[in-house]
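Example record

The entry below shows one chain as it appears in the dataset: sequence first, then structure tokens.
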Amino acid sequence: MQEFITNETKKIFNKAIKRYAKKDGIEEENVSILLHLFDEGEVDENGEVERKVGYKICHNYAPVKSVSIMDILGVKIDLKMYSVFVPPQIKNILENFETETDSKDVEIGVYLDRNDSDEVNYFLFKAGQLVKKFELEQVLNLQIDV
């Protein structure tokens, strides 16, 4: 199951980066996706402000627009239900990185591999500074909430 998820996630991000590069008229290697958490404003059952995953398209490492998971998926109707299952996994990974770095200012940068455009690379940033490159398999801790 984990291998399926990591492969599908790679395909989703790969297609999204290539689609935005073509749409925005910019080289694929200069487009990336930034994943982050933001306060939604709603309070959960524990009395804490609910945080959601945000997605930003970047050109040359600078965010140019915020998009939704449906935009990343490139669909209007999500028949595969990825928009339901992917955001909680990303949120879990980001929260674990917040704990690891002792900071709420963490982001994940998703880039095409410069040597193999079918592969994607994941990088952890804290306060805008590169912390490390990581493999999705290393940090994926499946959380299925149905």
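Notes for this example: Strands lie at 31-43, 49-59, 62-67, 106-112, 120-126, 129-134. The first helix runs from residue 2 to 24.
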